[in-house]
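Inverse folding, one chain.
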């Protein structure tokens, strides 16, 4: 989803949950693709020096962002969350809501999607996406309120 969306799968082999997940992923991509393709990209955590990678795309008007977070290390069976990830290039005076997207099946996010954060807070303190060996891929949609 971080560039040109594509699947390397045989759709006929998907079960109903997998097919629904693929359809939702395409809907999310279509909603975010202008932000991904035309927004500014920021690398937030380097996978060569951390157990996870994090990067984000911010729209030019700073109203929308999407943050991709991936657990990349199988060295440890860690369940500890990484440090909060400090975002970049948001409007410090705006409030933002963060929502986890691309959850499989009926899985619910453990993150509080009702909370509002100032851009200043997100760019100073950051936000913990709770990426770990049990949550190896966490995609967050960040939107101005």
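Residues assigned per position:
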């Amino acid at each position: 989803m971080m560039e040109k969306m594509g699947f390397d799968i045989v759709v006929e082999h998907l079960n109903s949950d997998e097919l629904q997940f693929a359809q939702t992923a395409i809907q999310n991509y279509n909603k975010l693709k202008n932000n991904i393709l035309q927004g500014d990209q920021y690398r937030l955590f380097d996978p060569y020096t951390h157990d996870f990678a994090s990067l984000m795309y911010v729209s030019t008007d700073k109203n929308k962002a999407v943050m991709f977070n991936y657990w990349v290390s199988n060295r440890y069976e860690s369940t500890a969350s990484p440090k909060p990830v400090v975002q970049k290039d948001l409007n410090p005076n705006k409030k933002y809501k963060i929502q986890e997207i691309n959850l499989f099946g009926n899985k619910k996010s453990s993150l509080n999607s009702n909370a509002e954060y100032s851009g200043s807070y997100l760019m100073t303190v950051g936000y913990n996406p709770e990426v770990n060996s049990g949550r190896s891929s966490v995609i967050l949609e960040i939107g101005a309120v």
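Helices lie at 16-38, 119-124. The mean pLDDT is 88.
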